[in-house]
Amino acid sequence: MTRADSSDGLAERAEKAAVAPRHEIESFFKETAKEVLVAFARNPNLQERDLLRLLERKDLPGEVLREVAAHKEAARNYSVRLALVRHPRTPRLISLPILKFLYLFDLVRVCQTPAAPADVKLVAEETILKKVETIPRGERITLARRGSGRVAAGLLVTQDRDLIAAALGNPFLSEAHLLRVLALENLPALVVESIAHHEKWSHRYHLRLALIRNPHTPLQLVLAFLPDMAVNDLRDICLDRRMREEVRRYVLAHCIERLNKKPPPLTPTE
User: Would the CA dihedral through 41, 62, 12, 53 be positive or negative?
Assistant: First the structure.
């Protein structure tokens, strides 16, 4: 077959894909040629379920996804728009504007879609956090349990004990998220105390350092943490101006005591 014949065959398939009735579209779902897929995505006979089936293919080129987004069924069907946002190859000019129209827990699904681009997930998280003040308390607690780690960390900054407990139990929450929370100015004391008493988080070394330097951590917990911390780390955190003077004195005294108990270095015998 000559190149001209191949080109003619491709053009013929594309022409057919653009207008094929629904009972003749099956073969086009497995098409590999971009030109044919672009034409197929324009087919006015495609219905919602056809577009969703096409979007299951993670290898679709951006040109095809643009045509899907422009299809009349995409405009009228929420599920198609959601699938477009979750697709790893959807152009940002298409996916990002859709985010603000998604339901709250569909935004959560976007954040938890492994193939979704990182910047799309980031905007989805920001959109969620902008909406949390307007949703009922019960939904906020559910969101704290099921949302991404960044969303859970954002929901931690509250005086609501149940919401704090839900966020701290979130499986996506990480130590890095909590370190950023503990560094916030004007963080409610209840949040600090909840982290300091938490069965999981209160045993993490770097979180303990952050809790020792935080002015809201109860003194008895600070004293309980000190024996497990390295002296050099304790001396470093004493430079933090947020630390209460009372705590600073205890920490420095603890460091001096431990250094005085340190055995002298061995010297070689003659």
Answer: negative
